[in-house]
Amino acid sequence: MILVTGGSGFIGSNLHAALAAEGREVIIADWLGQEGQKWRNLYHHPPFMVIAPEDLETWLASSPPLSAIIHLGAISETTARDADLVWRTNVTLSQMLWNWCAKHQVRFIYASSASTYGNGGSGFDDDYALSALLKLQPLNLYGWSKHAFDLWATRQATEHQNAPPNWAGVKFFNVFGPNEYHKGKMISVVKVKHDEVMAGGPARLFKSDQPGLPDGQQKRDFIYIDDVTAALKFLLSARNLAGIFNLGTGTARSYADLARAVCTANGLPERIEFVEMPTALRGQYQSFTQAPMARLRALGFNHDFLTLEEGVTTYIKNHLRQLDPYR
CA 210, CA 119: separation in Å to the nearest integer? Predict the structure, then answer.
């Protein structure tokens, strides 16, 4: 039995679909919501059980026979402003789950984030030594909360000998793919550009706010959801698991490349327009991310990642252009 928090969300529902296909019994902790279509992420693979997050601690007190907790639930908006709510959700809840797994000797995998790296000035090395982590400077509240838990977890493991028997923090880079449709303004750029070009307009990209960096040449490590699912499934069985690991393709690609890939996948000529970056994002926008993947590879993860073009084409043809875009 595996518990997936945030299991009706984007990454969680894709992971659940993969585990359900293998016959694994999955418990989901999440809110399905009264608005939107988030429940549709689970339509094709109803879970064994859904638990409201506020009931999670009580349910865990019954000592359910879990083999692993995969903690993906979080407030993930990079523009979040309620620091108390973000702390309770992204740090306090994570601490409770960590301590439960340590006590009951259960594998624990949690979502960190590439946003912990800030502007990349200290690099993107997933070294989880405290000396390395303390150099990082996240640009926003969300990134800071994820960084705070990374620091806490590392101290628990290295200074207090209080850790689950196998544990991993996963620094997701820019993930895209099916079942992200409920995410509002946090939806992937691939989906947004697809909608723009299919409506007959250009793919609109932010102008660069970095001196010397051409418009459209901001670069991110874009990774398709199936590659993320493959990595999480690997971590569920990896031996001697301990540490924080990057999860990207290892290759940074430009937003202009992405826009071109979206146009090509839809059989449309390239049409890109540059617009001013919103004031709220200036100074908080990562113009470059790239995931060194040596540490995860060293564990034995030899999966071949899709290229940006392959991932975009798969997403658009198999989901966005289908009557039912859900997995």
Answer: 11
Closest by CA position to 51, among listed 6, 12, 97: 6
Q: Select from 60, 79, 78, 61 the least CA-distant residue to 69.
A: 60
Nearest to 188 by CA among 143, 138, 223, 145: 223
Instruction: Write out the catalytic residue numbers.
Output: 142, 183
Whether the model pTM is above 0.90 = yes
How do residues 239-263 score in pLDDT, each as one tens digit? 999 999 999 999 999 999 999 999 9
Cα–Cα–Cα angle for 86, 145, 233, nearest 5°?
A: 100
For the stretch 269-317, pLDDT in tens is 999 999 988 876 666 567 889 999 999 999 999 999 999 999 999 999 9
